Write the structure tokens for this entry.
Amino acid sequence: MPKYEVFLWARQKLLSREVSNFASTYIGLIILVSTFAVYLVTLNAVWATDHTTAFVEFDYAVWANHSFVLGSVGSFNPGSVDVFAYYESFYMANAPGAAFIALPFAILGFVLTGHFTMWGDVLLLTEVPVALANALAAYFVYKIGSLFFKKRISAFLAFCYGFSTISWPFATFLYQSDFSALFDLIAVYFAIRISRAGNADKTSLALFCGLAVATGIMVDYVNAILVPLIGAYIFLSRNGSGILKERITSLAAFLGESVGLTFFLLATYNYASFGKVFVSSEELYLDGSSLFGSFTYPVYKGIILNLFTPMRGLFFFSPILLLGVLGYWKMLRKSGNRQEGILFLAVFSGIFLLYSSWYSVTGGLSFGPRFLVGSIPFLLLPAGFAISGASRNRSVIIFVLYAAGVIENGLASVVGVLTPPGNWLSSPFITNIFPDILTGQSDSWWRPALGSAWIIAVALIVSFALVFPLICVNGLRKPETPVAVPP
């Protein structure tokens, strides 16, 4: 069979009705399983960061001592700078949500090893919930996208988030960033559902939305910005049967759940830890300064740093996000999508601007702006308006942007995200990731077992992230009339 005829036969099979029906039915599950599988094979088995260490020390204290106290001053040697002393005891400075989510996995690791350790089974097992959270985040990108676009566009956006943004490298470490993105997405998904639902469904949807926001705040305190933003959207949205009374009821349910549950959880945690309801770990860690006193970096510099510099710029680490800017312009011009466009822009800007003024704006050891992972989906989702109906030439550009992000973040995921900050014009990919790949450095758990064949595994992982999404997206196209291929 000539090569061209083989190509036609393969294309026909790819666009066959059977493939299309399967992909259309199970595309959400396919996104979830494929991204989770890729994250699992790129889990870090070498490095433990300050955040990771503090979370695991906290989990061990909860499991072994049934206490939030990590240890006593003089007898406990903290392994992280994200720990502080208060009245002769050590406590974790981070928001506790990520540690609580990882707790069952950490306990399993402690049981398997029989003692406290940061390494081995404990390290890998505590990274599994982060990988799962980011796979679920990709799924919710698809779910939100499906409210606006055809399935193939929504699926492509989900794969863009999963494989072509810095969420992938950070899905291999125990950071709170990917957890934050998941709960932010869930909250926005339910907020949009509220605006489009019948009156009878609004209250239950508002409660789910509030629960997601409360959980997100427990993971990252900065997510509190979602309370006024989503609250305003719920109240002002006029889609569906937006009677004033119903909007007030939905807003009350949302605020009661998000604010009320957050206050209850934080008050309980603070009182159990410090004996005070209105004193948080972050406040004590910062020597009495309030959380709002931490936003001291000039915001205009933070904007430049986090968007346009090779060291931390989103557009350098995730080039596909450039289409989000064009997508915002298109989305905000359409009256039918303007409300959601404003919501996406508000959520992205709220998180982005706060972290662009954070006192430690670079985030220390980090491949890209790790603080901003939770905002990325809301710059990415509008890109669907730029991708929909793209010409052949534009489709090539879209794929190049996607592929650039996959290669950059895929290689970082098998090397590690702990790249030291340089100057604003230095790229961690060029100064750290690429040289480490050339010299055979990798933090993935399978590296010692593969020996010199490790580069084959890297090539297969990156190739899968490049090709598999295209197969899925093409499988969602309308089936074509069969083409006869001679034997």
